[in-house]
Specification:
heterodimer; A: mainly beta; 60% strand; B: mainly beta; 0% helix
Chain lengths: 111, 113
């Protein structure tokens, strides 16, 4: 069974810092990995999708990497802003109807 | 999110009444999913569809039924609402093929009193 762990569970940083969110998984038989953002009371917004054969994806200030051999993915946020405050979720697609989520990292960026 | 809408956004209903939530997509994606999100449990799959009239159960399907009569619409029905079904419900869509990601709707907040 795929186990997904996100560290840290919560993070508070001053504006402008670069930060890294971590996601670890136990089963490397994945098709792809998605990082989502969820604002309070809102839906999930897809940030980045990494295919199983890829190592990283970038979108603006966000960079996500995938290392299947070590069972890790990281989301790097450069020059953080208060608007980045949200819960960040990693999710692994295992095929069929199986999308496995981590518990999330709650990020607060202080101005 | 673009291409996927859920209705209603909020609903309060009484115990024992039937409730139907609607998910509508304009992306012509093959797969549609219903999840519920609860504190301490994260997102759990209720039912999903892999085509018109083709549906299957997820991990928490008891008390729920679904229907998909058109590609664009996926309905979730609580046959007789209970307080344990108070939750936020999310619909998601995905194209066919293993390499594609999920797109989630904005959610329906359901309160059963």
């Amino acid at each position: 069974k795929q186990e997904v762990t996100q560290i840290p569970a919560a993070l508070s940083v001053p504006e402008g810092e670069n930060l890294v969110l971590n996601c670890s998984f136990t089963d490397s038989a994945i098709y792809n990995l998605q990082w989502f953002r969820q604002d309070p009371g809102k839906g999930l917004t897809s940030l980045l999708l990494i295919q199983s054969s890829q190592r990283e994806q970038t979108s603006g200030r966000l960079n996500a990497s995938l290392d299947k051999s070590s069972g890790r993915s990281t989301l790097y946020i450069a020059a953080s802003q208060p608007g980045d405050s949200a819960t960040y979720l990693c999710a692994f697609y295992l095929g069929g109807n199986k999308l496995v989520f981590g518990a999330g990292t709650i990020l607060r960026v202080k101005s | 999110d673009a291409g996927i809408t859920q209705s209603p956004r909020h609903k309060v209903t009484e115990t024992g009444t039937p409730v139907t939530l609607r998910c509508h997509q304009t992306e012509n994606h093959r797969y549609m999913y219903w999840y519920r999100q609860d504190p301490g449990h994260g997102l759990r799959l209720i039912h999903y569809s892999y085509g018109v009239k083709d549906t299957d159960k997820g991990e928490v399907s008891d008390g729920y039924s679904v229907s998909r009569s058109k590609t664009e619409d996926f309905l979730l029905t609580l046959e007789s609402a209970t307080s344990s079904q108070t939750s936020v419900y999310f619909c998601a869509i995905r194209p066919g093929g293993q390499g594609y990601g999920y797109t989630f709707g904005s959610g329906t907040r359901l309160t059963v009193v």
